[in-house]
Amino acid sequence: MKRSEKKTAELSDSLHRRLDGYALAASLAGVSLLALVQPSEGKIVYTRAHHVIINGQSFRLDLNHDGVTDLTVENKYYTGSCQSGICSHFQRLAAKLAPGNSVVYNVFGAVAMKPGMRIGPRRAFRGDVETMAFLDTVTSRGPSGSWLNVRNRYLGVKFKINGEIHYGWARLTVDVQLPIQITATLTGYAYETTPNKSITAGQTRDPDDTVIEEPHASLTAPPTQLATLGTLALGAPKLSIWRREELISGKQ
Fold first, then answer.
1. Percent of the chain with pLDDT over 70
2. Closest C-alpha to 204, from 61, 47, 3
3. Which 3-state string (H, E, C) describes the chain?
């Protein structure tokens, strides 16, 4: 009986050592598996585009490709009241936001942000419909808005994904011609996948590897020179307004 009891004890000790080894290996494997399923860090998702939006057209923009329109760029032409056979005409380029979404704005409407400007919680945002450029044949004040003859400027967007706030941008080139014609070209858009995390206008990669992309020339509308006949017809007062708009947008 004593010899049998001793053999049983030795077998139990050996089995325990093997079980301990298996448990340790399983534990390490479990840690590795858990590391694999941890949520990945946020990143910037960039989409190259080329959509020309002419008079009377609009474009629905889905920043994160989830099938939900985040904003619509509208280029509306409409006729107002008519008196003695003379009718008023209007042309407006505007950003129409989905409920709960908004764009960076100032007193002129949606801001035409320059590359490198920050889009995040410290900005002033407003939703509903924000004017980008406006023309009319009623008053003599000339065109208005921050998007008058600009190339590769950015709409700063705050929008929601599953109830959480995200920031992104949409890049457009806008050509304004008198008496009443606006053409907008969307050349790209991007958003930050991490909720409440800022993004830089034009940024296409994560902050540690920031790249401000200028689209290839073939993807943009022809540049409009400031000194065209149509622009000169605006006169010095309008040029002063443009300068004030540049200063205001630069402070954003």
1. 59
2. 47
3. CHHHHHHHHHHHHHHHHHHHHHHHHHHHHHHHHHHHHCCCCCCEEEEEEEEEECCCCEEEECCCCCCCCCEEEEEEEEEEEEECCEEEEEEEEEEEECCCCEEEEECCEECCECCCCEECCCCCEECCEEEEEEEECCCCCCCECCCCCEEEEEEEEEEEECCEEEEEEEEEEEEEECCCEEEEEEEEEEEECCCCCCEECCECCCHHHCCECCCCHHHCCCCCCCCCHHHHCCHHHHHHHHHHHHHHHHHC
Q: What does the pLDDT look like over 155-190, one tens digit per residue? A: 999 999 999 999 999 999 999 988 788 999 999 999
Give how far Cα 169 sits from Cα of 36, 187, 206, 252, Å: 31, 11, 14, 15
Phi first, then psi: what are they for 3, rounded to 5°?
-65, -40
Cβ atoms 106, 249 nearer than 8 A: yes
The rounded distance, in Å, linking the Cα atoms of 230 and 237 is 14
Dihedral sign, Cα of residue 47, residue 53, residue 57, residue 58: positive
Contact 154, 112 (CB under 8 A): yes
Q: Output the CA torsion 193→47→172→115 (10° steps).
A: 60
| CB 247, CB 112: distance < 8 Å | no
User: Who has greater pLDDT, 222 or 115?
Assistant: 115
Can you give the residue ranges of every domain in the chain? 1-38, 44-251
Instruction: Spell out the residues 6+ positions from residue 69 whose beta carbon is closer than 8 angstroms to its own.
Output: 60, 61, 62, 98
Query: How is residue 174 written in tokens?
Result: 């806008």
